[in-house]
Specification:
The complex is a heterodimer of chains A (about 280) and B (about 350).
Chain A (H helix, E strand, L loop, with lengths): L11 H28 L3 H8 L2 H34 L5 H7 L2 H4 L2 H12 L3 H4 L6 H13 L1 H14 L3 H8 L4 H30 L4 H4 L10 H10 L9 H34 L1
Chain B lengths: L7 H8 L4 H4 L4 H30 L3 H9 L6 H6 L2 H48 L5 H9 L6 H12 L6 H4 L3 E3 L4 E3 L9 E3 L2 E3 L5 H11 L3 H13 L2 H8 L4 H30 L2 H6 L9 H10 L3 H40 L2
Antiparallel strand pairs in B: 1-4, 2-3
Helix pairs in contact in B: 3-16, 4-16, 6-10, 6-11, 6-13, 8-10, 11-13, 12-13, 13-16, 15-16
Classes of the chains: A mainly alpha (about 280), B mainly alpha (about 350).
């Protein structure tokens, strides 16, 4: 039993102690501040802030556009991952490398780049179109979440043994049947966690979206925009300070991210049980 | 353009001598169509926007690009002869360029503080988690990952709630004084026990560069630990155990055994951490106030963009875009080095 053998390596107490200390200082105590501060809000104030029509419309835009972007990435990410692994073509390595660019490119740079692209794109340059901001925010979020599906599906495809596929083919299955019955079930856990990761990232995105949406309350604001706006607002008509309002909406956004994280862990656990 | 190489799966099929139509699924038309969709998708969402950044940056020529960062005052006589509009532009450039340079310096300073802090943490966390067994390990890893799933705006908000005027430690944090590191000077030992003085002191945390550094530390917290953890876990503890048994002390073991094995992973983590620290926008914009002196490069881009100086905004953005392209190149190089290291190691493991 390895547990019985004494570990002779030094530095356990020091490294774990420092890890816990630094983790508390930078992450846990600040996050606890959000919980403590929201506990000081009265339930009525909290409820009226987070159900304010402008805030509700921001939830709709944030969640709706993130879902749409995650779905688009789900479809195209799968195709890109498949092509990058299976079909050699000139420049494949370059395309493979640039997939990570949305991780590396600062959000503000992506924001102004897309704002400039959108000015020449008919569906998003028409400012009279009432859905214009939905399109703009969704397209922006497609960029933000682009690498997730590709990078989760790619390793599974790389390890994939082509024999099963060939067996299905020799048994007379067409390409659609092979994809639907043989390939996709194997890819599914990785694919769905990629989609969920993209969604989680998009819900909290702020830096790039502010450059492409017009920030009109009730029409084109996302949840992070509401938080920033409330933070600098003075006390509202109900006598609640701007900071308290921002805290309430911030808590909602944090809970949203944490619940996606829980769902992700659940998917992960299911996939692992499935493997065994 | 790189030379197309067959992916692992195709090569395996070739080795087994399968007929060519079985090597790749899908007819030629499907293959061609899917490749075209993938290439168009990546071109539209990645290559086109990045191209726009550089095109925008040089839209008024190389001279205007340079004057975004360095614009010495023009000769009054030359200025006099200019048409009014050009004169306004020139004067604006002279006013804006020093602020842009300050923003670059601020970004570098923040990265210089944040990256070493998170690197030391990443090494400590990866050492504790990968080399020892203890209860609650999985939970600790999820806590380390937490900043990845927190919206940048919430990351800024929590520091305001902690140290802002109405924050939990507000009374203390709004009066704390701290020195600006670059204002250090030698004052000698006469009358002091500590020979280094600072000419520039800040008061408070929120709306100062310290808050920018704190928020950036939060946002980039997991990067180094995350890059090291899987690597160090796969390496196990045998080499270190052997070194200790042979009489090496902890420091020697870490420096001679662990560090060489993880150097590429460590470098990768540091590069990602730096890239994110340089480019962070949401968290930093919440805690820095709108003071020009606190601007990092992304905040500077927003301000210039808001004042409709598109070309200048793209010029600053082009620097950040170049950094991220270099990051991607380094990632490719490091991936190659890492797989080389793995290949070299494997045959040796049997001996």
């Amino acid at each position: 039993m390895p547990q019985l053998r004494r570990n002779v390596l030094p530095g356990f107490r020091l490294s774990l102690g420092y890890t816990l200390f630094y983790l508390s200082l930078i992450v846990l105590i600040p996050l606890a501040a959000l919980a403590v501060k929201s506990a000081t809000l009265s339930w009525n104030d909290f409820y009226s802030t987070v159900t304010d029509p402008f805030v509700v419309s921001a939830y709709k835009l944030s969640i709706g556009a993130s879902l749409a972007a995650a779905a688009i990435n789900g479809v195209f990410g799968l195709i890109v991952a498949w092509v990058l692994v299976r079909y050699p073509f000139p420049g494949r390595k370059i395309f493979d490398a640039i997939v990570d660019l949305p991780f590396a490119l600062p959000t503000a740079v992506a924001g102004i780049a897309f704002a400039s692209v959108f000015s020449s794109l008919p569906i998003v340059s028409d400012m009279d179109n009432p859905n214009r901001d939905w399109y703009a925010v969704t397209l922006m979020l497609v960029f933000v979440g682009l690498p997730f599906v590709i990078r989760t599906v790619q390793p599974v495809l790389q390890d994939w043994e082509t024999e099963t596929e060939q067996a299905a083919m020799s048994l007379g299955a067409g390409p659609v049947t092979i994809f639907r019955r043989v390939i996709f079930p194997v890819l599914f856990p990785a694919w769905i966690s990629g989609v969920a990761l993209a969604f989680a990232r998009c819900v909290g995105e702020y830096g790039s979206v502010i450059f492409v949406s017009r920030n009109i309350p009730g029409v084109s604001q996302i949840v992070p925009q509401i938080i920033v706006e409330k933070l600098i607002e003075p006390t509202d008509a109900n006598g609640v300070s701007g900071v308290s309002n921002a805290t309430a909406v911030g808590l909602m956004l944090l809970l949203m991210s944490l619940s996606i994280l829980l769902v992700l862990n659940f998917i992960d656990a299911m996939a692992r049980r499935h493997e065994r | 353009m790189s030379v197309p190489t067959a992916p692992v799966a195709t090569r395996a099929a070739e080795v087994r001598g399968l007929p060519s139509h079985l090597q790749q699924p899908g007819s030629k038309v499907v293959r061609w169509l899917l490749t075209a969709i993938a290439v168009l998708f990546l071109s539209a969402f990645i290559i086109w926007p990045v191209f726009q950044v550089f095109r925008g940056a040089f839209s008024k020529g190389v001279d205007a690009y340079v004057r975004t960062f360095y614009a010495p005052p023009l000769d009054p006589e030359v200025l006099e002869k200019m048409p009014r509009r050009e004169r306004v532009v020139a004067n604006n450039e002279v006013r804006q360029a020093p602020k842009t340079r300050d923003a670059i310096a601020m970004t570098a300073t923040v990265a210089l503080i944040v990256v070493p802090l998170n690197t030391v943490f990443g090494l400590a966390a990866a050492w504790a988690i990968s080399k020892f067994r203890f209860r609650g390990k999985t939970f600790l890893i999820s806590l380390i990952d937490l900043p990845f799933s927190v919206s940048p705006v919430v990351a800024g908000l929590i520091f305001v709630l902690l140290m802002g005027r109405v924050g939990i430690f507000g009374d203390w944090a709004t009066h704390i004084q701290w020195p600006w590191p670059w204002s250090a000077y030698w004052r000698g030992f006469e009358g002091h026990w500590w020979p280094i003085g600072f000419s520039n002191w800040y008061e408070g945390v929120i709306f100062t560069p310290l808050a920018t550094a704190l928020a950036s530390t939060f946002v980039t917290f997991p990067f180094v630990a995350r890059a090291l953890l899987p690597l160090m876990e796969s390496q196990g503890t045998e080499s270190e155990q052997a070194a200790i048994t042979l009489g090496a002390n902890g420091k020697q073991t870490f420096r001679r055994v662990t560090l060489p094995a993880i150097k590429w992973g460590l470098l990768y983590g540091i590069i990602l951490c730096t890239a994110r620290a340089i480019g962070e926008f949401g968290a930093v914009s919440v805690v820095s106030g709108s003071t020009d002196a606190n601007d990092t490069m992304p905040l500077r881009i927003e301000k210039i963009w808001q004042s409709y100086n598109t070309q200048q905004a793209f010029a600053v953005a082009s620097l950040l875009a170049s950094v991220s392209i270099v990051t991607l190149l380094l990632k490719v190089v490091i991936d190659r080095k890492q797989s080389e290291q793995a290949v070299v190691k494997k045959p040796g493991a049997g001996h």
